[in-house]
């Protein structure tokens, strides 16, 4: 969860987290019964959240995770399942709600994964492309967003999985900045040529002209619906905070009008991670990740890969840069300090590009920072993390449960 630095003093945020988080740990276990009648514990981790910025006023809510093993599974050969969610409501009536789950069935023979998001929330749109760094111009857009991601995967052999994916994304009631003199729908621009609109958008936003901006009219939106396939190798010793092993996943989704999409397009994702226990006795962990998203076809602009966020390229708000293709690399060093407290340092680089051949060393964006960790469940190695990331002319706080990757 991204918290903008300039709208919330760092000292107040840190004090709020410390004072409100510590009293909850003794209340994080609830007894339930599985199908065999044996008591099993569900461990809850709730955190309060507070943020503020001009577009939303003051936002408040909760971030949480539950850890459990479903009834009837073999606890020795089945990984721990989890459900996590956050809810934020603002004084201006906006809302963000996002639950997700990872459910491991007996012996990890099947894994069910899902994520749901409902956003009624404003967003800064900086433009399309990787050359928008020198401009502070932005468009404020407001919309309702519903996304549903579901996957069912089967274990083919130990650590090897394959399955199906379904994804739906719907954007409704899209509203652009009412003072947007740079918009094609502005009365002064209705007679302008494509070349004149291109010059106008570059003047305001420093972005390349893209007719996808013309497809979304005031109050409109789009839908994206697709099915696909996923294959991954998972040899990690822990899914929420690995110290050894590796994880490699490739996924592709085909969005088609026949399935309810506004346009036909394809997305492909690659996620590769490796973990090294540098000092096993002291639990010093080096984690590295290579990540890429690639799209083709007529991609709605909010469905394009977006650089930034709480997990990859920290230091940039999600969507600060967006285009058809996105690649990033990062490394993180994690170490304990004292008691349940630890720290991490991370760094990486990434970029977006219209075409794959347009990626260039000259336009790479840096990402680096540090963070604190608090172990709330030593058995599952689960941490609360508070990271502070820096990017190019950008920075931000991230409050999350579990590691970035």
Explain what this protein looks like in three dimensions.
- The model is unreliable at 4-31 (pLDDT under 50).
- A hairpin with a 2-residue loop joins β19 (382-391) and β20.
- The chain has helices at 10-21, 194-205, and strands spanning 2-3, 29-33, 39-53, 57-68, 81-90, 95-104, 110-125, 139-157, 160-175, 222-234, 245-255, 265-279, 284-297, 306-307, 321-322, 325-338, 341-353, 365-377, 382-391, 394-401.
- The chain has an 18-stranded antiparallel β-sheet, covered by helices on one side. Strands 14-15 form a two-stranded antiparallel ribbon.
- It is mainly beta.
- It has a single domain, classed as Porin (Beta Barrel), CATH 2.40.160.50.
Contiguous uncertain segments of 5+ residues? 4-31
Say how many strands there are: 20
Sheet having the most strands: 18 strands, antiparallel
Give the terminus-to-terminus CA distance.
Answer: 14 Å
Query: What gross morphology would you assign?
Result: globular
- Count of individual domains: 1
Strand content: over 45%
Tally of helical segments: 2
CATH-level-4 superfamily name: membrane protein fhac: a member of the omp85/tpsb transporter family
Order of SSEs, N→C? EHEEEEEEEEHEEEEEEEEEEE
| Rg, nearest Å | 22 Å
CATH class: Mainly Beta
* Structural class based on helices, strands and sheet pairing: mainly beta
CATH architecture name: Beta Barrel
Kindly identify the CATH topology: Porin
Average the pLDDT over all residues and give the rounded result: 84
């Amino acid at each position: 969860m991204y918290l903008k630095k300039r709208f919330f003093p760092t000292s107040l945020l840190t004090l709020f987290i410390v004072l409100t988080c510590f009293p909850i740990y003794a209340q994080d276990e609830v007894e339930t019964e599985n199908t065999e009648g044996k008591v099993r514990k569900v461990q809850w981790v709730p955190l309060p959240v507070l943020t503020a910025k001009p577009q939303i006023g003051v936002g408040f809510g909760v971030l949480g995770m539950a850890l459990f093993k479903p009834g009837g599974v073999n606890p020795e050969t089945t990984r721990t399942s989890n459900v996590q969610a956050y809810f934020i409501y603002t004084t201006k009536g906006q809302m963000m709600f996002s639950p997700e789950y990872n459910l491991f069935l007996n012996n990890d023979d099947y894994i069910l994964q899902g994520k749901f998001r409902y956003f009624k929330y404003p967003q800064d749109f900086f433009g399309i492309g990787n050359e928008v760094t020198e401009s502070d111009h932005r468009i404020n857009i407001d919309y309702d967003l519903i996304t549903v991601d579901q996957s069912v995967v089967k274990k083919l052999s130990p650590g090897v999985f394959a399955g199906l994916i379904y994804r739906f994304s719907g954007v409704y009631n899209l509203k652009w900045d009412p003072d947007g003199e740079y918009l094609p729908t502005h009365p002064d621009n209705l007679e302008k040529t494509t070349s004149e609109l291109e010059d106008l958008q570059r003047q305001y936003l420093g972005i390349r002209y893209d007719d996808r901006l013309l497809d979304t009219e005031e109050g409109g939106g789009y839908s994206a619906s697709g099915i696909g396939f996923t294959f991954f190798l998972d040899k990690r010793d822990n899914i929420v905070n690995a110290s050894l092993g590796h994880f490699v996943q490739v996924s592709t989704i085909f969005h088609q009008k026949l399935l309810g999409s506004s346009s036909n397009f394809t997305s492909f994702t690659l996620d590769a991670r490796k973990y090294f226990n540098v000092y096993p006795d002291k639990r010093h962990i080096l984690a590295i990740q290579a990540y890429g998203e690639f799209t083709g076809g007529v991609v709605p602009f909010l469905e394009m890969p977006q650089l930034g966020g709480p997990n990859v390229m920290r230091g940039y708000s999600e969507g600060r840069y967006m285009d058809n293709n996105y690649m990033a690399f990062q490394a993180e060093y994690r170490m304990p300090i004292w008691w349940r407290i630890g720290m991490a340092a991370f760094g990486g680089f990434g970029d977006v590009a219209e075409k794959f051949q347009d990626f260039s060393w000259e336009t790479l964006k840096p990402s680096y920072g540090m963070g604190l960790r608090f172990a709330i469940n030593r058995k599952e190695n689960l941490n609360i993390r508070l990271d502070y990331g820096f990017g190019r002319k950008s920075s931000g706080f991230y409050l999350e449960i579990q590691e970035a990757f």
